[in-house]
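Same chain as my last thread, 257 residues:
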Amino acid sequence: MESKKPTTKNYYSIDVAHIFKTWWQRIWLIILCAVIAAAAGFAIAKFLIEPQYSSSIMLYVNNNGNEQGGNITNSDLTASQSLVKTYGVVLNNRTTLLRVIEETGVSYTTDQLSNMISSRPANNTEIMIVTVTCRDADEAAKIANGIAHVLPERISTIITGASMEVVDPAIPNYQPVEPSVFKYTVIGFALGLILSLAFLTIIAIVDDAIHEDSYLMDTYDYPLLAKIPDLLEANDHTYYKKNYRSGSSGSEEREGR
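reply #2:
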């Protein structure tokens, strides 16, 4: 009589419950990794990255229609808003930047200075905000005020009928804008949490040990007749644990009693 081979189900499944159990059993490791990564992010932002400071000026953009003394119409405002982008291009022009360097006496190249300057309209108005960001708060304000002196003169010589008025000059701001210690700490915590969870998930997936008797019942068509109990979790926990580690037989100890 031929023996019947056990039939198996040829598919691979991921035990989500086992993954969550693995996470829960090593929750201390997940928290530890997240805290260490958060501390690393804090240390990097606080001690390794050089702080950056910014200072801004506000300029009012005039066009030809604004200067004729009449009422300002919506078309005038729209024209002024569109000029803000044009003025931003003129600001980052090499000739303008060279004049700013000459005006302020800083030792940057035009490319370096261009990377430090940003401009934008204020809430879609005809007000132009120019921001300078660098390693020194006083120097950032100095460069911004140099732009406020050079740019209006430069604009008036390039665009006929256009001019600029300084609304608000720059003052030093000693509160660093970069790096954000809070942001780096939160990012470090999130990275530590995600990486530790991913590592434990991989461990749980590649673990081919049988942890539950339900796995055998779902994989093979044979019924489960019995399973070996864990002696370390039996009622006489202390007794079995002591004999299991010492290697002495239970009968010898009971005879000694």
